[in-house]
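Reviewers of the previous submission asked for a worked example of the structure-prediction workflow described in the proposal, so we include one complete record here. The input consisted solely of the amino acid sequence. No template or homolog information was supplied to the procedure at any stage.
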Amino acid sequence: MALFSSLTPVFIAILCIVIVAVLKGFKKKSKKPKAQTTSTSESRPWVDEDLQDNTELNLEEEDNDDWTHREVDVPQIPFSPPQLSEGEMLRRSQQFFELLNKRRSVRFISPKPVPREVIDNVIRTAGTSPSGAHTEPWTYVVVADPDMKHKIREIIEEEEEINYRQRMGEKWVNDLKRLRTNWVKEYLDTAPYLILIFKQVYGKLSDGKKKTHYYNEISVSISCGILLAALQNVGLVTVTTTPLNCGPQLRVLLHRPANEKLLLLLPVGYPSENATVPDLNRKKLEDMMVFV
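From that input alone, the workflow returned the following structure tokens.
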């Protein structure tokens, strides 16, 4: 018994050492997934940071004094849109489908002038889009100046050549070969207008406070879809371009603030006289809709 009592401190010390060793091993294991995440992101250098959505803002990590927490009660007003007959609904739905089914991505754009008022109206139409908490987190930059368009082209073609040769990978480049696309973007010079769509990752109020923009990328993407429909409606063409790794340079060139990130670039105009498009087929209804 005396021997057991004298050895008790030794047993306690050994037990403490074992516990510390186990805890250290657990911490090392918990850190491993983090390292794997880092290596995964490093293996995909073509991902444009400007295109990563930071919708889920952690306000605890920000200086709370910089963010607004206003609670404004928005008044409600009556809403009663006109009710169409079933026949008229069917006619309009078919007509609208046939209009948009003719929409194509066109890379051969005529320099023929387009009325400025038309561009104003299609962007007004895009601005009718819904957005998270009605924050309207979009900025549409319209470029018509030839010198500015050419500077944009130089930035994009320089980065796009690197994208095609290094960042995008063999599979991506091969998938684009059948569409006959490359890093040469002549339409950036010839199109009467370039519309650069920026997502505002947060808002800025007149008092300097920041305003959270929920689901900013989804909201702006919906607005872009409405813009594409509006362009088709007036007989203009475009091609959706996402110039990878060009966002920061273009943001500086166009004097846009740090809270705006480039999402999409649309060259807009009439199709050129000898324009061609790939002969592609769209999915049938039964291949894209599930009716429950």
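The two ends are 76 Å apart (CA to CA). We consider this example representative of the routine output the project will generate in years two and three.
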